[in-house]
Amino acid sequence: MTAALALRRRPLLMGIVNVTPDSFHDGGRYAAAGDAIAHARRLIEEGADLLDLGGESTQPGAAPVPAEEELRRVLPVLEALSGCGVPVSVDTRQPAVMRAALAAGAAMINDVNALRAPGAVEAVVGTDASVCLMHMQGEPRTMQQAPRYADVVGEVTAFLEARLEACVAAGIERSRIVVDPGFGFGKRLEDNLALARALPELAKLAPVLAGFSRKSMIGAMTGRAATGDRLAGSVAAALWAARHGAAILRVHDVAATRDALAVWRQLEGGDR
Ligand code: HH2
Fold first, then answer.
1. Is the pTM of this model over 0.90?
2. What are the CA-CA distances from residue 254 to residues 25, 58, 79, 178, 263 (Å)?
3. Which of the two ends of the chain, N or C, has the fewest CB atoms closer than 10 A to its terminal CB?
């Protein structure tokens, strides 16, 4: 996938496929390759424009997964999805996983660590894959213990701009890069809300990917403790992000989000 595709029809729906035992919402449901492949195909039928395949949970408190294990989870699914009709992104922080995923046909690397690991930028330079650079304060194991910002929007914007420029300077074309403020990654509710309201400004840097789906910020706003009860809140957040300039919506629930977008677009007088 190139950013040109991301700009063709806004916003694109990125369906989440977690090939993990422990993801915060769907952990264990698609940990077997066959279940993940069937889920991916279902999301495509529901209208996903692209898929995001993950072999490591990055929820608060999660421990890192060795690269060999991440590859064992992700590669068979990625290979089975070749020719599935939509670009497949791989959600990883590890350069070894990036290299293998790109060799196996991944169209995008989605890195919650914004290609900061040694060798990560080099893994992507020289390919034509897109990249998502996400902001995270700290690292998953500890990031929600005491997140602190003096100016969350200013700090996240400066970080994303610096990572964007570093990647461009290293040889990744600007048109291949999307940015993401990283909702829930080392942020309090008030930080997430400030960043959500700043989506139009962030979109001036590069196309923005927004991931609110089923997250604890939705739970905090609705009083829904169980992730399974956060569908309506997640769809509302996705619509709001679409309205405020998000180019890609990363969601667990493609059909519900697609229907909501279709209704909203027609009410606004646009195309389906
Ligand atoms: N959120 C999650 C994982 N990867 N990548 C980007 N760019 N933006 C996000 O907001 C984002 C992300 C967390 O969601 P999920 O993959 O469902 O959970 P887990 O990390 O527990 O597997």
1. yes
2. 15, 21, 22, 20, 14
3. C
